[in-house]
Amino acid sequence: MEFKLEDAMRIGAFRAWAGLLLLGGTGLLTGCGMLGGDNTSTVCADAKTAFQQYMTQVRSVSPAQPAEWRPPTEQLAGRVGALAGKAEDTKLKAALTDVSGRLKAASATIGTGDAAQLNAVMKDTPQRIGKACG
Fold first, then answer.
1. What is the pTM of this model?
2. Are 97 and 84 in contact (CB under 8 A)?
């Protein structure tokens, strides 16, 4: 049995959806637990929205057209990077900066049909950002 790009992208998309559910739950807890101070709950909610919008975009892109995955992945990397710039919490800033850099690297390889980096980012992101948001 051969493992194809389409399979890798479907697996990555599934992991991202499952992770967004986890991230969403963590973000809700963060919002309830904040007593003021920094903008963590807002930045976490914005990150969740950015990933949800990305998933909506790429769901309509055919896995057989890997070049079409690059622009939305680059856009997500930029949005996450901008959120890192806004984050006041140092752990959240570091997590978002890391994810943004990894998404930028993944956008370059996804355009050529290599989904490994994107899958790795999507697998790890909910835990990384969720931990910083929680």
1. 0.76
2. yes
Structure tokens at 96: 């978002």
Q: What is the pLDDT along the chain (134 residues), one digit of tens a residue?
A: 343 555 555 555 545 544 554 454 444 334 433 445 689 999 999 999 999 999 999 988 888 888 899 999 999 999 999 999 999 999 999 999 999 999 999 999 998 889 999 999 999 999 999 999 98
- The rounded distance, in Å, linking the Cα atoms of 118 and 62 is 15
Report the candidate in 72, 74, 58 with the shortest Cα–Cα distance to residue 10: 58
CA dist., res. 115 & res. 13, Å (int): 11
Which residues have a Cβ under 8 Å from the Cβ of 106 and sit 6 or more positions away? 73, 77, 117, 118, 120, 121
CA distance 39 to 76: 20
Long-range contacts of 71-78 (CB under 8 A, 24+ apart): 73/103, 73/106, 73/107, 73/110, 73/118, 74/103, 74/104, 74/107, 76/50, 76/51, 76/103, 77/101, 77/103, 77/104, 77/106, 77/107
